[in-house]
Request: fold
Amino acid sequence: MAPLFVRRSFRVRPALRHAVIALGLALLAFTSPVRAADPQPIAFGHSLAHGQPVIVDVTDDIKADVHVTTWNRPSVDITVAPSGHYADAVRLSGSVENGSVAVHVICSPSPHRGAFGWLNFYRPKARIDLRVPASATLSVHVINGPITVDGVTGDLQVTLVNGPIVVTGAGTQLYLTTTNGPVEATVAKITGQPDITISTTNGPVDLFVPKGFKAKVHASTVFGPVENNLTDAAGPGSVSLETVNGPVTITPQ
Reply:
């Protein structure tokens, strides 16, 4: 005679089920703070002496979207529009430091505080619009981008960790670096002996230069092709283009 198997069904008691649901909702409410309405944009402006450098620094607590354009005024103007969780904690300050106009965008108090501060949605977002003279000496330092710069022909330095860099209408004094993201730069004006350094780890590097551009070019990648379309690369200036994962191209146009 075959053994007799009895199938037992287990039911979750209604009271226990309701308790589990309530606990889940409580945890969700605890880890997802109520988002208030986005605050009004904040702004800073300062006149610039001839040749006075501008430095912009954005803390890693903020997911920034930086846009740099030029105007015909001898001054710097920055507008920050924060949004998302902790948007009301975004602060903007500016002052003259060691002869430079230094602008700082921070989040205070930091969203990294507390047991759940590591969660990505705790970081506020900020659209950052910066206007400077075309010939300005400009340094922009951001952790989480992207960054776009249009029309700055002066000495330009952009450092980023996460995100792409796109530069158009530039001069020949460039230092652009990121870790995760592509870098694309277009030189519109030969403003002096070329001194260009562009690097990333994960992403392609593309440099577009005017016809007649001459410089010694160093281009390297580990996983990807290198395409140098300059017909005459001999020149007193230097260009360094480097990535690990992605192609490298330099193209006259």
